[in-house]
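Escalation from tier 1.

The customer reports that the assembly of two entities below gives different structure tokens on two consecutive runs. Tier 1 could not reproduce it. I'm attaching the input and our single run for tier 2 to review.
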Amino acid sequence: MISIKNLKVNVGNKEIIKGLDLKIAKGEIHAIMGPNGSGKSTLSYALAGKDGYEISGEVKFKGKNILDLNVEERAHHGFFLAFQYPVEIPGVNTNNFLRASLNAIRKSNSKKELNAVEFLKLVKEKTKELKIKEEMLSRPLNVGFSGGEKKRNEVLQMALLEPEFVILDETDSGLDIDALKIVSNGVNALRDSNRSFLIITHYQRLLNYIKPDFVHVLSHGKIVKSGDWKLAIDLENDGYGQFLN
Amino acid sequence: MNDINQFKIDFEKYTKNKLFKENLSKRTEAFNRFLTKGFPNSKQEHWKYSPLNQDLTKFKEVKFVENSDKSIDEGYFEKFDHYKIILKDGILVSESLLTEGLTIAKCDTSSFFDVKKNPILDFNNAFYIPSYKILVAKNVKIQKPVVIYNFISASFNGNNINLKCNILLDDNSFLEVYDKNIFLNNDFVFFTSNLEINISKKAVLKKYSLNSNSKNNTIYNFAKVDLDDYAFFENFNLSHNFNSCRDEFVVNLNGIESKGSLNNVQHLSRNCYHEIKWEVLHNEVNTTSKQYVKSVLNDQSTAAFQGKIYVNSIAQKTDGYQLSKALLLSDQSKFLSKPELEIYADDVKCSHGSTSGNINKDILFYLRSRGLSEKEAKNLYVEGFLADVLEKIENKEINKLFIEKLREIHEYQ
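Tier 1 run:
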């Protein structure tokens, strides 16, 4: 599904990701854990195509090097980044944004765009599954949303856009236990044999709810250890100290 | 340079026309004041950002020819239920105010007001056409908005129109007025309007203006609003590609707990230049005011905002707020901002803020990561940036109309 080879990411003169290799097969869930400053968020932004990075290496996805594509083309191709801090956009109605986004992706894949009625029907189903109040969708995008609402909105977008590769960037940050469960259930409902996930997190807590197939430790811009989900428990017990030197 | 002698000849000519005959002595006083001051220039503090300074140097004569064709293109009428006042080239053509407690009469021109340092008002007072006066009776709540269709037709054969209008609300009444300006002329027209509003105790006036695509006009809109105890005035203005315009409000919060809310959103391209000058005077205790200006500026367009909050020494517990935000979408666009606070009371809450800049990159990244192209993302953001203010319009029909206008603007971008 996705194969990352010798990925290097520079911000200005500073090398943040220093030659990262990773393969994620169809249907697999991988978690990347690491201390502050290890390059986790830079990795997620670089994969999603944010400007301002100097990138070398290769990221193959469905046979294409996605580093050659711009942000929206990656989204059209099936990439999705669930943001750690979803931005607030005053005046942009959440429903309108969701429909514009879904139709942009459908259009790029030569699918028929949904009209307002068809979209409303679809979004109603999805909000029910995620226990999102419909009232939230008539508000401006993320404006005044609680931390939990913002993350649920990210999962709702994921459910609507049905991407093939999802990066969850510290989706657990700022969530209380109940919100964490709802968000995790939303993600778990989207697990299937054709969809892969890369979960980026500091803590093992999220991984209790979304069980990964593999766990990797990122330190100083490189994967320094890989293992199964038990590695996350070891990290919770022993901390990241052993990887910092 | 303007030719003062030519203006004197033109004034003589005007006073012989039946349209301009009344109040001759007051007109002459105003004209003489105007002659002493001349048109404004950028050396005057109140006019230093004004597009009118430049435009009016080209104004060589004052010419008005009454249009014999009184027909109106009804295609411009709004679809929702409303009362109509129709002006064509400055002349009141027809009106349909068919409800108890709402009347229209000829403008009351006995109350000439002289705003210091304002030569354009003197000009207006000299050359005005008496236009409408709207009256709402005590305790009457008018359910449907009054739409004022202000046509300047393609066949108008003059270069100047000056209107004088009144809106008077008696105690505990309610009215919504929507000014729809339809400028169809291609030649230069200098248009001024001078509106006097009086809102009595507990009365509410909500006013909306839509100004779009004026190709070759220089426009000056002046309104003075006086509010009595517990009265409320709210104004929303949407400007799109207005060639050259100054919008000016003087809002006097004269009654206790009176409130004023001024809102302007604008989307300008090409060389369009829009200046806003607002002055809110808190003259009584517990008065509240809000001023919001949002600007989206493309190409070589310019927007200027001079907003003032004045607090009289007796106006304790004043709450005054002012915010202006501008999105500069090209390197050549300009936003000029001059917030002013003049406070003589010691127990007040007043704040102001002004920002200008480009579209936030993190927002664009977020929207594009959801599949929207850069252009679609920018349009969605810009539309939201302006809609944020317009969403506060409580009247559903007018809200829909203004939001649709924003969408339309983007479709043609």
